[in-house]
UniProtKB/TrEMBL annotation:
Cofactor(s) listed: Zn(2+)
Keywords attached to this entry: Hydrolase, Metal-binding, Zinc
Keyword Isomerase included in the entry's annotation: no
Signal sequence coordinates: none
Alphabetical list of Gene3D superfamilies matching this protein: Zn peptidases
Pfam families in the cross-refs: AstE_AspA_cat (PF24827)
Domain Succinylglutamate desuccinylase/Aspartoacylase catalytic: 46-226
Taxonomic path: Archaea, Methanobacteriati, Methanobacteriota, Stenosarchaea group, Halobacteria
Name of the molecule in the record: Succinylglutamate desuccinylase/Aspartoacylase catalytic domain-containing protein
PANTHER family xref list: BLL3975 PROTEIN
KW Signal (keyword) present: no
């Protein structure tokens, strides 16, 4: 690649230029191209190349709006570096408004880095990965919770890798859940290929949630400031932060009875050990189970659909140490 020029199969974007592309990644039953929307913004001055991607799960919409607003509404006059904006990765899933690729219900987010002579999912993944992920220096992949659940905005990242840890912290979320990530996921495979990548989880599928979108946009500003792409902006500090490493620092609380769930807290809420988190009742509104917090923590994810079988997840709770707990209490003065 010539210094400062972004090239892809079929085109090039010079410094100071922006281009909206519809890039073919597969074909329909009719033989028509399946094309993903891509916006390349090449800053007038050189700097790192950053990709922003969304809707690798086709029904996870919040990130689409984050990436579109960065691509189309921000002033990139002072940009030092290049942004590769990929608002809809899983176009077939997006068209069907479902999580997986409609073909055999494949998870595009288990198909990376892909292969040219493999399944349709892996071929699609390879087109995306080779053209728009591998040429980058770092990336952010936006997700939401699975349908029927919601989560507070948080980052998932392999913080054992110092480069990934730098990126994760720069996004300035309160909670970072550290793991390598599943094999075949964009985050893990891009990181393994030398492109440090984090996942941002935010809210629920099938929605635009304005408050979360705005907070994610603040996170993108902070990341681009950290890496010098927007040198006049500041890197944010979220006020408090907890990095959740091993399994006993987080837990999914599960239903011990079938029934109707009444949640007493929303995602992002602080709870203390022993607090009632939810109750499960039967059709006669008699209580069949009360679920209490096993430790002091913050609720990262909760059920949206109030109906459960025994064993269904109710809420994702992350433990807070004493110092973090005090910082959260200062920020949430009304927390009990
Ligand atoms: Zn997802």
């Amino acid at each position: 690649m010539t210094e400062g020029v972004f090239t892809y199969s079929g085109g090039r974007v010079e410094p100071g230029e922006t281009e909206d592309i519809r890039f073919p990644v597969s074909e329909t039953y009719l033989g028509d191209p399946i094309r993903i929307p891509v916006t390349i913004i090449n800053g007038a001055k050189p700097g790192p190349t950053v990709y922003l991607s969304a809707a690798v799960h086709g029904d996870e919409l919040n990130g689409i709006e984050v990436v579109r607003e960065v691509a189309q509404e921000w002033d990139h006059g002072g940009l030092e570096g290049t942004l590769v904006c990929l608002p809809v990765l899983n176009v077939p899933g997006f068209m069907a408004q479902q999580r997986y690729l409609p073909i055999y219900d494949r998870d595009l987010n288990r198909a990376f880095p892909g292969a040219e002579d493999s399944t349709s999912a892996r071929r699609m993944a390879a087109r995306i990965f080779d053209e728009f992920v591998e040429p980058c220096d770092l990336g952010i992949d936006f997700h939401t919770s699975t349908r029927g659940r919601t989560n507070m905005l948080h980052v998932r990242a392999d913080t054992d890798d110092p480069q990934v840890a730098r990126l994760a912290k720069a996004f300035a979320s309160h909670v970072i859940i550290s793991s390598e990530g599943p094999s075949g996921s964009l985050r893990r495979e891009a990181t393994d290929a030398g492109v440090p990548t984090i996942t941002v989880e935010m809210g629920e599928a099938h929605r635009f949630q304005r408050d979360l979108i705005d907070r994610a946009l603040d996170g993108v500003v902070s990341v681009l400031a950290e890496y010098g792409l927007r040198p006049t902006d500041a890197v944010r500090w979220p006020g408090w932060r907890t990095i959740v490493g091993d399994q006993n620092e987080k837990t999914w609380l599960r239903a011990s009875a079938g029934g109707v769930v009444e949640m007493h807290h929303i995602q992002g809420a602080l709870v203390h050990e022993g607090d009632r988190i939810c109750t499960i009742t039967n059709p006669f509104k008699a209580e069949s189970d009360t679920v209490c917090a096993p430790f002091d923590g913050v609720i990262v994810g909760v059920l949206e659909n109030p109906l459960v079988y025994p064993g269904n997840p109710l809420c994702h709770l992350v433990r807070l140490d004493a110092d973090t707990l005090r910082a959260v209490e200062r920020e949430q003065p009304n927390a009990e």
